[in-house]
């Protein structure tokens, strides 16, 4: 195969047939596979799908069973292929990896991977990478194939989806819990399908030139196509004059994937209720952290955006309950406000914990005095909301 969707290979790609055991050994040492598995292993441990002492064994077994029938190694430009009786599946798996080889020629994948800062960004990038390959592979092996319905995975994707959905523990899992071994393929395929329908096959190059900005865009294709990004905020609140003993450590976005993991670690039953069906409804967040000298007490200011006030209220209530679990304290009941909910409590040292819902947004402030907390909340309430990428 010298050309692929209009592009010509500049360097040869070799195909090497290997045994299933050899493939598992390669996967266990392959950086991208390990990195992908590290995230899902943490999530699956938290929801009790296997015990801690079984984690390594089960994770390795799952890789052997669910990984694709082939694997592209970018440095050596080799495709490792595991022979199976079904020639159609094998041919499609080979086409999938050939697409990865072409992606690696057109785009600086190694440097793009190094620039990814968090799990959410990795999920979005993998969605673009795998979605493009899954969408194009059947069209290289079955001439003229097309689907009008972008909600139905094709070929091996359909088999993977059916296998997962037929397993009792996984049947009703939301996207946040399917990460990252499943979501980039299925949701990435759906996104690629919609991009191709709107812009044609060559429009798929857009996916890697502008990968989804995390999981939210991946399972909300219309937001990706419209150029809508997760909500970000002006960071000028950090100019607020904190007492001299406080020093600023920095700011970051938690992201939907890491947030799902945090919820699961603190209260499995509560997290399951929030992550089921439509998931968290997360649309963006920004976390600021400062530290007090001497006792190293940390102060946290966290602002999150959700799809609707209902999603925001559910998260606000859940986070308030989790703070009680985290501190081992019977916190006062959360208040009902006209615009949402509020929880407020101070420990014996005067450090305040506050959760406030305002419409579809939630503010969490922890570790400061009550007076400083009120000042921060007043300042944050005046900040303009902007759309844009996460800025350090």
What features would you describe in this structure?
This protein has 392 residues and is an alpha+beta fold. It is 46% helix and 18% strand. It has 15 helices and 14 strands. It has helices at residues 20-29, 31-46, 55-66, 87-106, 109-115, 119-141, 155-165, 183-199, 205-209, 215-218, 221-225, 256-266, 268-275, 309-327, 370-381, and strands at 3-4, 7-8, 14-17, 70-73, 78-81, 231-233, 246-252, 282-292, 298-306, 335-336, 341-346, 352-358, 361-368, 385-387. It has a seven-stranded antiparallel β-sheet. The protein has a three-stranded mixed β-sheet with strand order 3-5-4, covered by helices on one side. α6 packs across α8. The radius of gyration is 23 Å and the shape is elongated. Mean pLDDT is 77; it is low at 31-36, 62-67 and 386-392.
Strand count, sense and barrel status of the largest sheet are: 7 strands, antiparallel
User: Helical element count?
Assistant: 15
Low-pLDDT windows of residues:
31-36, 62-67, 386-392
Strand content: 15-25%
Q: Quick check: average pLDDT?
A: 77
What is the count of β-strands? 14
What is the string of SSEs from the N terminus onward? EEEHHHEEHHHHHHHHEEHHEEHEEEEHE
Coarse structural class: alpha+beta
Oligomer: single chain
Level of helix content?
40-55%
In angstroms, what separates the terminal alpha carbons?
Answer: 43 Å
Rg, please?
A: 23 Å
Strand order of the largest sheet: 7-8-9-13-12-11-10
Give a nutshell description of this structure.
The protein is α+β, with helices and mostly antiparallel strands. The protein is built from 15 helices and 14 strands. It is elongated and about 70 Å long.
């Amino acid at each position: 195969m010298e050309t692929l969707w209009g592009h010509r290979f500049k360097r040869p790609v070799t195909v090497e047939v290997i045994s299933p055991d050899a493939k598992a050994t390669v996967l266990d040492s392959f950086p991208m596979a390990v990195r992908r598995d590290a995230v899902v292993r943490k999530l699956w441990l938290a929801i009790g799908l296997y015990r801690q002492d079984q984690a390594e064994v089960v994770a390795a077994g799952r890789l052997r069973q669910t990984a694709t029938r082939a694997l592209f190694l970018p440095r050596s430009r080799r495709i490792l292929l595991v022979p199976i009786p079904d020639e159609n599946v094998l041919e499609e798996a080979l086409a999938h990896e050939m697409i990865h080889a072409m992606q690696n020629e057109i785009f600086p994948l190694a440097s793009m991977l190094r620039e990814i800062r968090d799990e959410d960004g990795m999920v979005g990038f993998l969605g673009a990478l795998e979605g493009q390959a899954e969408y194009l592979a059947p069209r290289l092996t079955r001439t003229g194939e097309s689907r009008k319905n972008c909600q139905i995975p094709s070929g091996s994707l359909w088999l993977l989806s059916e296998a997962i959905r037929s397993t009792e523990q996984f049947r009703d899992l939301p996207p946040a819990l399917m990460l990252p071994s499943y979501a980039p393929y299925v949701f990435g395929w759906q996104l690629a399908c919609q991009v191709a329908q709107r812009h044609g096959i060559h429009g798929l190059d857009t996916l890697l030139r502008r990968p989804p900005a995390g999981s939210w865009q991946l399972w909300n294709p219309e937001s990706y196509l419209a150029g809508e990004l997760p909500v970000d905020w002006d960071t000028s609140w950090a100019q607020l004059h904190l007492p001299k003993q406080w020093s600023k450590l920095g700011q970051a976005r938690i992201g939907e994937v890491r947030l799902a993991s945090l919820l699961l670690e603190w209260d499995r039953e509560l997290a399951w209720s929030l992550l089921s069906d439509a998931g968290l409804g997360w649309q963006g967040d920004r976390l600021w952290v400062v530290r007090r000298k001497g006792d190293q007490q940390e102060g946290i200011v966290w602002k999150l955006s959700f799809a609707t006030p209902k999603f925001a209220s559910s998260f606000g209530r859940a986070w308030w309950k989790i703070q009680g679990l985290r501190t081992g304290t019977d916190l006062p009941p959360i208040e009902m406000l006209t615009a949402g909910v509020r929880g407020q409590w101070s420990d014996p040292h005067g450090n305040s914990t506050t959760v406030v819902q305002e419409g579809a947004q939630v503010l969490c402030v922890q570790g400061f005095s009550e007076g400083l907390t009120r000042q921060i909340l007043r300042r944050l309430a005046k900040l303009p909301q902007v759309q844009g990428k996460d800025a350090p």
